[in-house]
Amino acid sequence: MNKRLKIGITHGDINGISYEIIIKTLSEPQLLEMCTPIVYGSPKVFAFYKKMFDIGNTHVVPIDSPAAAHQGKAYIINCCGEDIKIETGKQSLEAGALALDALNAASNDLAAGNIDALVTAPINKSTIQSDKFHFPGHTEYLEKIAGGRSIMMLTSDNVRVALATNHTPINKVSSELSKELIVSKLKMLHRSLVQDFCITCPRIAVLALNPHASDSGLLGDEEERIIKPAISEANSAGIVCTGPLSADGFWISGSYTKYDAILAMYHDQGLAPFKALFHDSGVNFTAGLRFVRTSPAHGTAYDLAGKNMANHQSMLNAIYSAIDIVNNREIYSQISANPLRVEQHGERSEISE
After folding, report:
1. How far apart are CA 127 and CA 130, in angstroms?
2. Predicted confidence (pLDDT) per residue in 329-351, tens digit
3. What pTM was estimated for this model as a whole?
4. Which of 120, 138, 152, 193 is close enough to 199 for a disulfide, judged by CB 3.0 to 4.6 Å?
5. Cis peptide before 339, with omega less than 30 degrees from 0?
6. Helix, strand, coil: what percent of the chain each, to 5?
7. Is 177 within 8 Å of 229 (Cβ atoms)?
8. CA-to-CA distance for 113 and 110, rounded, in angstroms?
9. What element of type H or E holds 278?
10. Three-class SS of residue 264?
């Protein structure tokens, strides 16, 4: 794996901490030894924040397309005009439109194979909405680009939390859950653990929806009606999964360290404890797609914007994770390319003595 992958990085919301964490990440001396980063954004905004934070050892070369990028340097593709209004720490529709411009350009290059993976800086899900973007977030947008379903996964060290439902309002979670949905998510999660993380026989914990796993039906029936049948079907298909497990006890007891991944039923059930534990290091990975996309596990952080206080470790980890996953998929592809033929009973062996 000597090839240095071309990693596209979208600039996200220009009024948040995106440029700060991007610039700090590009200043890491080892990064260019691992990949060729290509920022999709604005050279003007990049220069503005670089001067603001006085980070002199970070240089990007303007290019028109990923084909012009070569090993040993960082690059930037201008996706915006020159007349840009930067309002540090403030929401604005202009910032949302600029975030979408960068996302569209990078996604097109990703889908075309011009870059090897995509790392997205945080967006404001409200200001990016338009007639061209009507999705709850990056995940749903990228599903449309890829033409397939995905599963949202947060990772840090050996802890991986995936979601059965993504950006679903809490009053609609129960009605959205079904046995078929959970089985589908478990299959995607299992496959990702095998091909993206090189885990041979992954063990998955499945969280309950209701408090105390419903206390035998006293606090709801989704566990008996939906989740348990889904777990049974997944186990019958060769996926090792356990549950439904009471979420509060699962996290406080440290049980999350005993599994290769956790499937939570809804957004905050999985992400609130994960971010409390790994806010500065966590990575958001959109698993199940034909291409690789990661991002930092935090938002725009307007309250920190322009103060030189943002921690860039999550962005750095997102880039490293993208590199690892691309390489792991290549390894998986190679080792599974020519599987041994399983002989049926009564067939003669092709191996002679």
Report:
1. 8
2. 999 999 888 766 655 555 544 44
3. 0.92
4. 193
5. no
6. 40, 15, 40
7. no
8. 5
9. helix 267-278
10. strand
